[in-house]
Amino acid sequence: MSERKTLEQLTDGELHISHSQISTYQNCSLKYFFRYVEGRKPESINISLPFGSSIHTSLATLYRGIKNHQVEPLEAITETFKTCLSLDLDSSDLPIIYSKTTPDKESAIAMGVKMLEVFYNTVNISDYEVVDVELPLSAPLYTYQGKSTDFKLVGIIDLLLKSPTGDLLVVDFKTASKSISQSAVNEDTQLTAYSYLLASNKLITSTSDIECQYCVLLKTKEPKVQQLNTTRTRSDRRRFAKIANVVLAAIDAKIFMPVQSWLCSSCDYSTVCKEW
Ligand code: SF4
Q1: DSSP letters for 91-158
Q2: 39 alpha carbon to ligand 1 midpoint, in Å?
Q3: Residue ID of nearest Cα to ligand 1 atom 2
Q4: Could you give the 3-state DSSP secondary structure of residue 203?
């Protein structure tokens, strides 16, 4: 089931917002307008999207197996990747924008297989119990002062682990062409959104800190895996709620403008943006 369908089922027609919508608005409110207000079809698909989604599906297959005490062989994981990516690319009616590191379908498949091989052979989670994989959660969105709003926050946690001491660890898988800094992970609001959802669903207490991890599969010449840990606190969750409410207020006030940045080079609305 696609991520979008899962999130729609979570809300059953209620007003909702996801972290991805919030960060799209923060990065460029005009892009948010094209995608979520107009529901405009993208002009093209950047290879990083189907590539990342196929890596996610492959890792979900691996961890679902571990959860059911059945470790899938590496070949099954790489086959999942090849099938998902081929299906996505072959069924797309939009032009695919390839990158320097993956200039065509064959090189993208070869890169993904190499990355999964490195992941499979280096990442060891034998000390951890797999609590859930691709866990969909929703929760009422409160203001930072604790007042309820009409909106729900929705999200899907890639992987939830439990340490031998019983502490939860939220893992978010990423694919990237270069290393991610510790400060970027410390400031990342996606992990804070997950922490908010876990606290609201009473999987941790409202005052608890929670350990989170970015697990990054690097698309370098020799692929590597980077694991960066960070913590989210109650005050991080309150700050996130404040950001989410400010974004909702700005959307409600119809504030949409172009934000020129390095993200423009891979934006799937660049033609309509120029016409704006
Ligand atoms: S091209 Fe840049 S400014 Fe225009 S919508 Fe896309 S991200 Fe925003």
Answers
A1: H--S-EE--SS--SHHHHHHHHHHHHHHHHHH---TTSEEEEEEEEEEEEEEPTTS-EEEEEEEEEEE
A2: 15
A3: 264
A4: coil
Residue 209 near residue 221 (C-beta atoms within 8 A): no
**Statement to judge: residues 47 and 161 lie in one domain:** no
Give the C-alpha separation, 204 to 189, whole Å: 18
Give the separation between CA 25 and CA 106, rounded to whole angstroms. Answer: 34
CA angle in degrees (0–180, nearest 5) for 187-102-34: 55
> Does one domain contain both 205 and 238?
yes
Per-residue pLDDT tens over the stretch 189-244:
999 999 999 999 999 999 999 999 999 999 998 999 999 999 999 999 999 999 99
Number of structural domains in the chain: 2
Q: 101 C-alpha to center of ligand 1: Å?
A: 23
- 87 in ligand 1 pocket by Cβ < 6 Å? no
- With vertex at residue 216, the alpha carbon angle to CA 114 and CA 97, rounded to the nearest 5 degrees, is 70
Same domain, 134 and 187: yes
| Helix/strand/coil percent split, the chain, to 5 | 45, 25, 30
pLDDT 10s digits, 90-130: 999 999 999 988 999 999 999 999 999 999 999 987 789 99
Residue 36 lies in a domain: no
CB atoms inside a 10 Å sphere around CB 122 = 10
* Residue 137, both tokens: 């959660």
Tokens 């081929």 appear where? Answer: 86
Q: Are 230 and 186 in contact (CB under 8 A)?
A: yes
Instruction: Assess whether the C-beta atom of 183 lies below 6 angstroms from ligand 1.
Output: no
270 C-beta closer than 6 A to ligand 1 = yes
